[in-house]
C-alpha cells in the first residue's frame, strides 16, 4: 500500500499499489499468488514457464539479448516491415489508441519485453488504471522495471499460454513482436480472449509468411532455420473471428502484420 495526502481532508489515505491491484486479478485456480522478486517484478507461484524450443526463444531469455534488445528489435522489424518500427513514441501512442485506452482501464501487455509499451499504457490509463507487463524472461523483466516503471505499472513473470488471471479482467490486451516465438501461439490468443471483457480490444503484431502462405517449402525452411513461426495471411484473423471477435482489421507490410479486433 502507498500513502497519499488527500487535499480535501488534509489527511493521509492508503492506496493500493499496482502490485496489490495485480494480485486482486489473479485466479486462485490458476496461480497460487505472486512472490516479489528482488529486481522489483513479481513472480507467479504455481505456474511453470514452458521450456524453450529453439534458438529464438533461448536468445530472448538471455541477459545479453535483453541488453541489446533496444537496438536490435527496431532494426529487425524495420527490415521485416519496410515501415518505421514500433518502439518510438508515436508508435506506442498509436498502439494505445488502437487499444482505446482510457483512464481507469486495465491493460495487459503479454510478452512485454523491456516494457516499452507497458510504460506508455500506464500513462494512458492513469493512476486509477493498471498496466501489467508479463514476460517469461527474467532479464527482460529486470530491464522493464529499471527502464519503464510507473505508479500504475506492474511486471509479472508468467506464461502467455496459461495466464494467471481470472476471466474478463482486462479492458485491453496486446502482444507485440512475440507471438511467433510462443510455443502454442493460438493457445496464447485463446488466453488473451479469455481475460478480456466483452467490448475489450486486442492488438497483435507478429510475423507474416512471404506471400501470405505458410505451406510453401521455402517458408517451412525459414521456420526451421529461425525457429520462429511464420503466420499465414488469414490464420490469425480467422481464429479471432471464430473466438467471437469483430471489428477485425489487419495491416500487412513485408513480413509483418498488425491485427486489431474487439471482443463481442
Automatic annotation (TrEMBL):
GO terms for biological process: methylation. InterPro entries: Methyltransf_11, SAM-dependent_MTases_sf. One of its GO terms (molecular function) is S-adenosylmethionine-dependent methyltransferase activity. Residues 108-204 form the Methyltransferase type domain. It comes from Nocardia yunnanensis. The keyword Cell cycle does not apply. CDD domains: AdoMet_MTases (cd02440). It comes from the Bacteria. Keywords: Methyltransferase, Transferase. It holds the Pfam family Methyltransf_11. This is Methyltransferase domain-containing protein.
Amino acid at each position: 500500500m502507498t500513502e497519499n495526502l488527500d487535499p480535501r481532508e488534509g489527511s493521509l489515505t492508503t492506496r493500493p499499489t499496482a502490485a496489490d491491484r495485480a494480485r486482486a486479478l489473479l485466479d486462485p485456480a490458476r496461480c497460487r499468488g505472486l512472490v516479489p522478486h528482488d529486481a522489483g517484478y513479481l513472480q507467479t507461484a504455481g505456474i511453470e514457464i514452458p521450456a524453450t524450443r529453439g534458438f529464438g526463444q533461448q536468445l530472448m531469455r538471455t541477459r545479453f539479448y535483453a541488453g541489446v534488445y533496444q537496438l536490435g528489435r527496431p532494426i529487425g522489424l524495420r527490415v521485416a516491415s519496410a515501415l518505421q518500427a514500433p518502439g518510438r513514441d508515436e508508435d506506442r501512442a498509436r498502439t494505445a489508441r488502437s487499444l482505446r485506452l482510457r483512464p481507469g482501464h486495465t491493460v495487459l501487455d503479454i510478452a512485454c519485453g523491456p516494457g516499452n509499451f507497458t510504460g506508455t499504457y500506464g500513462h494512458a490509463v492513469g493512476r486509477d488504471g493498471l498496466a501489467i507487463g508479463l514476460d517469461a524472461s527474467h532479464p527482460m523483466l529486470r530491464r522493464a522495471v529499471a527502464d519503464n516503471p510507473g505508479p500504475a505499472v506492474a511486471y509479472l513473470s508468467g506464461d502467455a499460454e496459461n495466464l494467471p488471471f481470472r476471466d474478463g479482467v482486462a479492458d485491453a490486451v496486446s502482444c507485440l513482436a512475440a507471438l511467433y516465438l510462443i510455443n502454442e501461439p493460438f493457445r496464447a490468443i485463446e488466453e488473451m480472449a479469455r481475460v478480456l471483457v466483452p467490448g475489450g480490444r486486442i492488438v497483435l503484431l507478429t510475423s507474416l509468411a512471404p506471400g501470405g502462405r505458410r505451406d510453401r517449402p521455402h517458408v517451412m525452411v525459414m521456420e526451421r532455420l529461425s525457429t520462429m513461426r511464420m503466420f499465414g495471411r488469414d490464420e490469425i484473423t480467422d481464429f479471432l473471428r471464430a473466438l467471437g471477435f469483430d471489428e477485425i482489421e489487419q495491416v500487412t507490410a513485408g513480413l509483418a502484420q498488425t491485427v486489431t479486433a474487439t471482443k463481442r
